Amino acid sequence: MVDPVVVRAAPSPTGDPHVGTAYVCLFNYALRTKRGGRFILRIDDTDRTRYNADSERKIIEELAWLGLTFDEGPETAGADGPYRQSERTAIYREAVQTLIDSGAAYRCDCTKERLDEVRAAQRARKEQPRYDGHCRERSVAPDAPHVVRLKVPRDGETSFLDGLRGTITIANSTVDDQVLLKTDQHPTYHLATVVDDHAMGVTHILRAEEWINSMPKHVLLYKAFGWDIPQHFHLPLLRNPDRSKISKRKNPTSITWYRENGFLPEALLNFLALMGFSLGDDQEEFTLDEFVAAFEPDAIKTSAPVFDLTKLEWLNGVYIRKTPAPVLAAKLVAISPMAAAADRTLLEAIVPLIAERMKRLTEFEDLCDFFFVDKIEPRYDDLIPKKRTETNTAAVLRAARDVVANSETLTPETLEASLRALGEEVSWKPRELFMSVRFAISGKKVTPPIIESMCLLGKAECIERLDDAIDVLGDPENPILAAPSS
Ligand code: GLU
Ligand code: ZN
User: Which of 132, 318, 333, 411 is 20 to 30 A distant from 168 in Cα terms?
Assistant: First the structure.
């Protein structure tokens, strides 16, 4: 029996829900689902200047869309709340007071001007800019404006264990006397994180690699408080194809974008899991359950994963093809106004025809709009195969129209057989015939299989569209006729 875990995600509500948040949540979710325990959502809203009021709701909604759910959080009652750091200020102030009382932290009332001067002088000496310790031994009155800093030992070194990288040791002399409480008495990220992870009983911290630089500060804080340190695992950063840290300019980063652009949650989760984990044997497709069953935090890959949209699209296509038609129809309805307005039976009949051809659900409208319009306006040029004439094409389309009109009901087998027979009779290649008919029926070059599409459209509609196409060919006023292109 392994012990249950307590894990958390601590997204900052500063903007659109980020795929990096989904990635971190997925790995935490996997650990808690595998081992049992609790997964806490904590809102890291300590930075009030970057706070965005809608962001928290959007993060929760998009994570729910992905199926990543929490045991505790701002919307789920639990024993460890409140779950917004902005509602926990009293807890941080009390914690900081214990550090001041024990001599591990001190008040600092240095002005911005003084700190700027100190940094400028350090830079001029080619030193790393940092706080110079001016207030370490001074006594600053609690009622004067001040920050509180950690009194980092000047000597010795600090070691910490990263579950993926082993022990990392750094000299204390390189660690700044970090600010714990800001002038407005709000906590910094470092203080709030350590205090909350301890208060909430967090056992494992799985978070983005960019926070590894904060580890010495956090470890020194845990030591100053006399608290046990949770196990840490820093997930490899997602990267743009040029290997820079994933960014909006080079890759869509908002989960909302992926939802609205026709990606399936299963595909995005599978893809994000692949970024940091391997199921062996180059297995690229796996379900969330398979991932959870295989997951071990210390087997997380540390190589820099590239967020390759083309690969995600491929995987999305795989999942689209695996999804049963009624489910896929419901998903289309959720993102496409055209699908939402469509007759559900027709939509569910169309879905199997297009599932093979879509990498994103959003391709539906382009592929299928011709099912939902009253009139197609095929272009004269499109209707006539390269080596054929207007008169010849009009005659063939008229014959195709008669094939449709003479069929009792349209079924794919009989319609295809009779159109092929027609092709033979008039010495048209099937490719020519089907292309001309396709343009007449849909107005476009790429469609779902045209025979099946015609059967779904129904006899009367097909006759009307073929008649319209014949009219386009027979119209002497046709502008394209009047001005031949070459
Ligand atoms: N707000 C931080 C983030 O979104 C939390 C980092 C942490 O997990 O400690 O990356
Ligand atoms: Zn100072």
Answer: 132
